[in-house]
Specification:
This protein is of the alpha/beta class. It is 42% helix and 12% strand.
């Protein structure tokens, strides 16, 4: 398939997990703790609850208390039939055909909040991740050349993380995903994660950093509660910017030269400023705080990282002029509330960017990042 002459990989398309995913797929010894998805008149109801009905993950504001608004109403129509048909693999493939996508790498929706509850423990978190990955493997089986899974990894125990990464590589996954905000009391540059980074290098798996607007005890967006609009503006980009600093200036990529990292669904127009800021500060204080870095932080980014561009991100045209297009990837963000589906690709193609850059962004860069 080619749209307007462009082959397209979606670097970060989302699925909508069935409400009983963890009940059906989790190890039976954890079944009495498994969350249930909530189903309501909202066709994109993302809530989950404990078996006793308590909210699974803290949200701000609670979705049941949000005034509908025009965007809410629009999405009820756009996604109504997909929800009625159960968000199946076939529905996913048809949505890809609508947008003109050849391949999509699939990230979670409810799963973005699966591991953020405060009372979770390492064995249960690992079981939650395994269950999600087993379900996603089954989901992708219908068309494994077009549906590519990004596996859930629990960071509550590094033995669990490494073991699951190895299992998912055997299942054919091309990447793992992590929330951009750390879920444990360790920054991304800490030694705690070293076994995982080494394993991902050995397994040739990419790591996609992905944030969520509405959950996460340590997330910077918590300071903006209860204004979901402002949280959407700041939470994802700020968490991704801090994560990028940990990888590029904190020494992770210096220690792991084969590790590939993506910063997804958080815009990209901030990238030139952030890399300039990291480089300037490294030149001033890197001898004390980053002695392991042999290159500027920006050079590690250019060697090993990509960042996703939004379909209508007009300010990113300046980035392409300053920085080139070699580290940008594309995403529709289907079926999330701020996606431009079913016109996401069309919005991108209207950006005043030369076709040679569009070709890199829509296919070449993403294929290289996911080692396709």
């Amino acid at each position: 398939m080619a749209k307007n002459g462009f082959k397209i990989i979606d670097s970060d398309m989302h699925i909508m997990e069935p409400p009983d995913l963890w009940e059906r797929y989790i190890d039976k010894k954890f079944r009495d703790r498994a969350p249930r998805g909530v189903v309501s008149q909202n066709v994109r109801d993302l809530r989950m609850v404990y078996p006793d009905g308590r909210d699974w993950a803290r949200q701000s504001p609670r979705e049941s208390e949000v005034a509908s608004g025009k965007n809410f109403e629009k999405n009820q129509g756009v996604y109504g039939q997909d929800a009625a048909r159960g968000w199946t693999s076939q529905v996913q493939l048809e949505a890809m055909d609508v947008e003109g996508l050849d391949i999509a790498v699939l990230y979670p929706t409810r799963g973005l909040r699966a591991l953020v509850v405060e009372d979770i423990d390492a064995p249960f978190a690992a079981a939650m991740a395994r269950a999600y990955n087993d379900w996603l493997y089954d989901f992708c089986k219908q068309e494994p050349t077009r549906l590519i899974g990004a596996a859930m990894i629990s960071t509550y125990d590094m033995n669990d993380a490494v073991s699951e990464a190895r299992r998912c590589a055997e299942l054919g996954f091309r990447a793992v995903f992590l929330r951009a905000v750390p879920l444990v009391d360790h920054q991304w540059q800490d030694d705690y994660y070293e076994p995982l980074w080494s394993a991902l290098e050995d397994l040739n798996l990419s790591v996609g950093l992905h944030e969520s607007t509405g959950t996460g005890a340590r997330q910077v967006g918590r300071r903006l509660e209860p204004n979901l609009m402002l949280r959407r503006v700041y939470a994802q980009p700020f968490e991704q910017m801090m994560a990028l600093g940990g990888f590029c200036a904190g020494g992770v990529l210096a220690r792991h030269p084969k590790l590939r990292v993506a910063f997804l669904e958080a815009n990209c127009s901030w990238l030139p400023w952030l890399l300039w800021r990291l480089d300037e500060t490294w030149e001033l204080e890197g001898d004390v705080w980053a002695p392991a870095l042999k290159m500027k932080p920006s050079e590690y980014f250019k060697r090993q990282c990509v960042v996703s561009i939004e379909p209508g991100e007009i300010t990113a045209t300046n980035l392409v002029d300053q920085f080139g297009s070699g580290r940008l990837v594309f995403s529709t963000d289907y079926p999330h509330g701020d996606s431009k589906y079913p016109e996401a690709v069309n919005h991108f193609l209207k950006l005043p960017i030369a076709d040679e850059h569009k070709r890199k962004i829509l296919w070449d860069n993403c294929a290289a990042y996911y080692a396709m």
